[in-house]
Amino acid sequence: MFRRRFWVSLALSVPVLFFSEFIQDVFGYTAPTFPGSVWITPVLSVVIFAYGGVPFLSMARTELENREPGMMMLISLAITVAFVYSIGSLFLEGTTPFFWELVTLIDIMLLGHWMEMRSVRAASGALDELAKLMPDTAERITESGDTEEVPVSELGEDDVVLVRPGASVPADGEVVEGESSVDESMITGESRPVGKEPGSEVVAGTVNQDGSLRIKITKTGEETTLAGIMRLVDEAQKSKSRTQLLADRAAGWLFYVALGVAAITAIAWVVAIGFNIGVLERVVTVLVIACPHALGLAVPLVVAINTSTAAQNGMLIRDRIAMEESRNLDTVMFDKTGTLTKGEQGVVGVETAGDWSEDRAFEVAAGVEGDSEHMIARAIRDAAEERDVQRVSVSNFENFRGLGVRATVDGETVHIGGPNLIEKLGIERSDGIAAFAEEAGSNAETVIYLVQDESEVVAAFALADVIREESRQAIEALHAMDIEVAMLTGDSEDVARAVSEELGIDQYFAEVLPEEKDTKVEQLQSEGRFVAMVGDGVNDAPALTRADVGIAIGSGTDVAIESGDIILVDNNPLDVVRLIKLSKASYRKMQENLVWATGYNVFALPLAAGILAPIGILLSPAIGAVFMSLSTIIVAINARRLEGIDLSV
Q1: CA 47, 50, 54 angle in degrees (round to 5)?
Q2: The dihedral sign for the CA sequence 334, 337, 341, 342
Q3: What family is reported (predicted)?
Q4: Residue among 334, 258, 303 nearest 82 (CA)
Q5: Phi/psi of residue 156, each to 5°?
Q6: What dihedral do alpha carbons 433, 434, 440, 442 form, nearest 10°?
Q7: So what's the pLDDT on residue 193?
Q8: Rounded mean pLDDT of 599-606?
């Protein structure tokens, strides 16, 4: 709306300015005259006032009803006084209309509010994204054992449904038949698929992977875990408080100042010279000059440049207020998986036995796991590539569900698998391998064994979610800014403690259920903390919206992105530090601009009132308008300086 009205009003303002007597005098030209040309300026000004000024008058009424005068009342006061006085000047001798000032004032205010509204967050689509996780239909098993496709809304408790590989679970339930792994990252944010067997619980919206499952429904509709998360997101969004902009508060104060100065001006001049048209001009000049173009642009200009600068540095701003308030953060809470860590398994340690070297162990293990798409296989292959190790050739590859894999290497049988494989083969580990496995277990790391000839464990690999190198730098930088760092995870106490100690995190919350994450944010807030939440999963969505500033990792789920106030495109925790630096720099620019904008008024209002009239200095409306334009130019130049800010960490 502001954009459309700005362009229309700007187009109509061109002839108003061209035919304005003041503009002609300033630039030394004479506009052509023709029958009716004298009415071009007043008629178009009336149209611009009615079309471009009405939104401000409408919003001013709301401020008036709430008894909270702000920018809208100040703008409305100025354009109304300018409009009425200019119309009146057409019929009163000795007065000078300033229609050109009226239309440029409306144009600049429309531009400022268009820029401001562009940066306001769009309506959040988090709930829509959550709803997309749910399938529309399900395959219900009938009494005869056949399947029938029914809408999910028709499912009831104790119904049994068939969930094929690749399909989404339609409702919360319990596995009654079949074995498979289920991708629960949409709900938990954790990267590792979870094995399911009879008796295991499954959650609506999660995705079945490699096996068919028969599931007995235990919860439907509003009772499901996903529905509960949707409610939390909705409640947290509604709980956000309204924040007043600095410019609005300044405008509110200026509104009262303008009325006060105008009243004093009127009384003083009437007492001094009696009431005449000159007194009216003084009062009008005060009221029009009280609405500075610069104050209307002081914040929107900085916001617009802030938004583009952030985008160039991998930060997308959805909520302007959250961006402004990031400067006040004293606590940043990170989700662990996919945020501080890469969200994927990596080899973090290796131990060999006998005369086997680490390189030889990786050559064989990477060769045996060469064609597997399992995350552990990928981790071993990636580790081998990092070491520049070539895979051996293998044959007779076989996969054993729940145990591991087997292949032939140089005529010898080689197995790779976890503790179940060792137990199945009845093999004893060497003391070194056993101690390595015990230490890895205490750090909640997964241990995979390389077995030769079904008789000897020749190597063990410890795997864990790999910590991002940027995480260490980010936490150090946050500590340098006197900001505490907390970590939130659904992982075990051992994993949380190990990661926390390695990164130097101040506080961590382990084994947190999806529905509990936002309560941890609330817990910190109840201690008086100003909290940012950084996360990437659906279960992070309520916490992202509950936090004072919600920061979503860009490669995370759509729901987390829709729930965040700010999105980090590059999955880099260092961007949190850059965000805070940019927020502080932007706030400084806003303060500087507000000082310039209001400083103009401190200087211009007394002159407009005629305080220096005794020594022959009297500010005319036209000269006051020129000063106003200079103030606007200074504010614009100062805002542009934000583009050159150094955000390096």
Answers
A1: 150
A2: negative
A3: Belongs to the cation transport ATPase (P-type) (TC 3.A.3) family. Type IB subfamily.
A4: 258
A5: -125, 170
A6: -170
A7: 76
A8: 77
Angle at 159 between CA 155 and CA 164, to 5 degrees: 85
Of 165, 140, 166, the residue nearest 152 (C-alpha) = 140
What is the pLDDT confidence band of residue 241, given thresholds at 50, 70 and 90? very low
Torsions phi, psi for 118 (to 5 deg): -60, -30
* Dist. CA 87–CA 72, nearest whole Å: 22
Sheet holding 566-568, edge to edge: 315-317, 566-568, 549-553, 531-535, 331-335, 484-488, 507-509
Query: Could you say which of 319, 335, 518, 575 is catalytic?
Result: 335
Neighbouring CB atoms inside 10 A of 96's CB total 13
What is the per-residue pLDDT across 188-230, written as a single tens digit (0 to 9) for each? 555 567 889 899 999 888 888 878 899 999 988 877 777 766 6
Beta strands in 468-547 (DSSP E): 484-488, 507-509, 531-535
Phi–psi pair at 153, nearest 5 degrees:
-65, -20
Q: Are 210 and 165 in contact (CB under 8 A)?
A: yes
Rg of the Cα trace of the chain? Answer: 34
Better pLDDT: 44 or 220: 44
Give CA–CA dist 334/206, Å, rounded: 23
Query: Is this model's pTM higher than 0.85 or not?
Result: no
Output the CA torsion 345→347→351→355 (10° steps).
Answer: 120
Cα separation of 500 and 642, whole Å? 36
Band (pLDDT 50/70/90 cuts) for residue 557 is: low
Model pLDDT, residue 205:
84
Q: Count CB neighbours of 550 within 10 A.
A: 30
Length of the chain (residues): 649
DSSP state of 339: I
CA 432 → CA 354, 438, 494, distances in Å?
A: 10, 10, 22
Q: Do residues 414 and 421 make contact, with C-beta atoms less than 8 angstroms apart?
A: no
One-letter amino acid at 358 equals: E
Break the chain down into helix, strand, coil percent, rounded to 5.
Answer: 55, 20, 25
Torsion angle of C-alpha atoms 57, 59, 60, 63, degrees rounded to 10:
170
Residue 335 annotated in active site: yes
Each residue's pLDDT tens digit, 427-441: 889 999 999 998 888
pLDDT on residue 609? 82
Distance CA 607, CA 636 (A): 24
